Amino acid sequence: MSEHDKKRETDAHTGTETTGHEWDGIKELDTPLPRWWLYIFYACCAWAVVYWIFMPAWPALPGLAGETDHTRGLRNHSERANVAMALDALDAQRADGFAALAGSSITEIENDPELLGFVLAAGEAVYGDNCATCHGVGAQGFVGYPNLNDDVWLWGGSYDDIRTTLTVGIRSEHPDTRFSQMPAYGRDQLLSRAEIGDVTDYVLSLSGTSADVGAIQRGATVFEVQCASCHMADGTGDRAQGAPNLTDRDWLYGGSREQVMATIHRGPYGVMPAWESRLDEATIDALAAYVFLLGGGEDATAGPTGQ
């Protein structure tokens, strides 16, 4: 009998043998595992063996398991294959919707409940992934980012206008991007602070805000020389240049006197990316139709076919 076994003894309180180990008067009991625990352990081992046989579990050498890197088991099961099949089915379903969209005008979309549902669902998903960060989840816009729900458009609100804007972007790196640039009249010292104050009062007066009559008169002269070429003599703007209407009380960068002065001083330069390199044509079609249908779209006869 080994020295270790000689040290084993039966504990008087539990009737269980000790392991022979003792430290500072504390002896370690050699308590066996409960039988129910052992039965569960053995059952789990048996279940693991069965699972290994029937389900994909074992890594395979290249070429031994087809396109996967593991054996598929007797059930020939593959989650990767299932996901690929589901994606193929989804792509086929979307292809039908995109094909129908490509041949439909906005009016036809609105009159076809199934196609309208597809456009709203697909467009909303694309919008949420790519546009909501700047324009808001509800397309309500923020300071510097246009509201897409109203009928105020810088570059036009027909389907074709919206689609072109999405395709080439605004002041983006696309060679055909929509481009306009308002001078920074204060930062570049093109106008004095007093002149900026006067033209601010004049601009605000165009939408009904009262101001000092003398300032408005002086501002009108500055406006005629510096601003009318883009915003037009009456301040109604020019979509061909992306110059906003100054008479409608809709302000992209804020409509208080301080905000308008700041806009004139620094010359805003907002950028929207060109989505042509990020989204395919069918997806841009769906996104343009979705934005159009938010409520502010113009000229309902225009559509994905340019009608």
UniProtKB/TrEMBL annotation:
InterPro entries: CcoP_N, CcoP_N_sf, Cyt_c-like_dom, Cyt_c-like_dom_sf, Cyt_C_IC, Cyt_c_oxidase_cbb3_su3, Cytochrome_c_Oxidase_Subunit. Belongs to the CcoP / FixP family. It comes from Maricaulis maris. Residues 1-24 are annotated as: Disordered. This is Cbb3-type cytochrome c oxidase subunit. Its cofactor is heme c. It holds the Pfam family FixP_N. C-type cytochrome. Part of the cbb3-type cytochrome c oxidase complex.
